[in-house]
Amino acid sequence: MSIEQQKAIWDKNWQHQSQINPKEILNSHFAQEAYHCLKNFINEKKR
């Protein structure tokens, strides 16, 4: 999946979920982003 596709999905989820509870979604959104970044970073280190 391309970064553009990923972003489109994030944006769609963001718009859908931010109607529920913006603060809660903000936290989970950034938590997931941070998790992916960390995972990628660790995978790079392993090589």
From TrEMBL:
Name of protein: Uncharacterized protein
Organism from which the protein derives: marine sediment metagenome
